[in-house]
Amino acid sequence: MSQSFDVAVIGAGPGGYVAAIRCAQLGLKTVCIDEWKNPQDKPSLGGTCLNVGCIPSKALLESSENYERAARKFSAHGIKVEGLSIDIPAMIGRKDKIVANFTGGVAMLLKKNKVASMHGRATLLKRDRDNEADRELWQIEIRNGDKVETVGAEHVIIATGSVPRQLDAAPVDNERILDNAGALALTETPKRLGVIGGGVIGLEMGSVWRRLGAEVTILEALPGFLMSADEQVAKEARKIFSRELGLVINTGVKISGITSGQDNVTVEYSDVDGNPQKLEVDKLIVAVGRVPNTTGLGAENVGLKLDERERIEVDVHCRTNLPNIYAVGDVVRGPMLAHKASEEGVAVAEMIAGQAGHLNLDAIPWVIYTSPEIAWVGKTEQELKAAGVEYKAGQFPFMANGRARALGETGGFVKVLADADTDRILGIHMIGPYVSELIAEAVVAMEFAASSEDIARIVHAHPSLSEVVHEAALAVDKRAIHI
């Protein structure tokens, strides 16, 4: 054993590197182990989120939205653009630069906080007693090519994240059939783009390439669109994405075959009515969700318990069935969201240090960075109805908001759901401009057990988009002012 630590964090994504930094801040000798390599075959911290997920996708979404504004929306402001064109390699280069800056930034943060950083695949071996230090240490093998070393740690935080779910019928080669990494690295706009999966990744990537000129068809197996979102929000989103953006969205499909040729990909499927259909595209994105990344972790070596979905089983405090081993983020229950992973990492670090770490899984915000954006926190109307909860609802459209009008982004609304008896907020749902920022107010309100009247009584700046949240809260008691 080469070194020993108080805490070993396996994985340097949003859950892992944040946990490692917080451990170090609390005086714990910490190592962060990660195996990710960039296309140049160099270690690259930040996990899926920074390398091929959250950050690069938002960079391309912003670029594509700027292009669409110049092409379709600037004229309403009296701004004329002639000879508009798009340089896809330059756009991808900008995205890559942002990624490099952030992954390098994570390395600097670890160094600044005196967190040891080791590259390679970490495998749990066993737990041994360190008589000299008078404590039990977990032995962890770190393999980087031909180099193998072993470290010991009293506590282990597993933050290995998730990987794209594979379709046997559509093996990803990132030439014709793409996963999220391939979709972020295209060097030209495909004329015809197919997307299997109508979730967050499929919608965001489909939106990017549709704005840049591709004909985009989305095939979703579920009978409805965005079924995890509030039904009314999902209905509004489908209308806007279909009519204004031009996405072709098919739900309830069953794929029967996928053939990848030299120049195209053919998808054979049956539609919601059972009729056979055929889709020919130049590129096909497979975005059918993600699965926990536990391969090579050594769960079988130490008896680490996994559930039926291969997630690591944890309790409410992210403790596994093994002493001093914790797990956070995509590899455990709950939503696969970067911010959820980070806060779990902080909570675990604080518990290891003897503090009262805490995370409320009922107040995790969800965001889809399409245009318009979609965000929510808490229960949906369909969930409240299914549970038999009596509630009241208030809603207000962005169309009636002065700031939204000035922006020229008037689609969508905010909806507030509150308990019929206590008025306590049960959920807030949004679709519209910059709702990824507005949702924070809703999360704060729910964390402090606010009522809809609490938001209604708070002064909101004018003119601002946040006034839509204010008016929706007023509408719960049928006293909205501006509609």
From TrEMBL:
InterPro entries: Class-I_Pyr_Nuc-Dis_Oxidored, FAD/NAD-bd_sf, FAD/NAD-binding_dom, FAD/NAD-linked_Rdtase_dimer_sf, Lipoamide_DH, Pyr_nuc-diS_OxRdtase, Pyr_nucl-diS_OxRdtase_dimer, Pyr_OxRdtase_I_AS. The active site is at residue 462. It is found in: Cytoplasm. Disulfide bonds join 49-54. Keywords: Cytoplasm, Disulfide bond, FAD, Flavoprotein, NAD, Nucleotide-binding, Oxidoreductase, Redox-active center. Its main location: cytoplasm. Residues 5-345 form the FAD/NAD(P)-binding domain. GO terms for biological process: 2-oxoglutarate metabolic process. Its cofactor is FAD. It catalyses: N(6)-[(R)-dihydrolipoyl]-L-lysyl-[protein] + NAD(+) = N(6)-[(R)-lipoyl]-L-lysyl-[protein] + NADH + H(+). Belongs to the class-I pyridine nucleotide-disulfide oxidoreductase family. The active site is a redox-active disulfide bond. This is Dihydrolipoyl dehydrogenase.
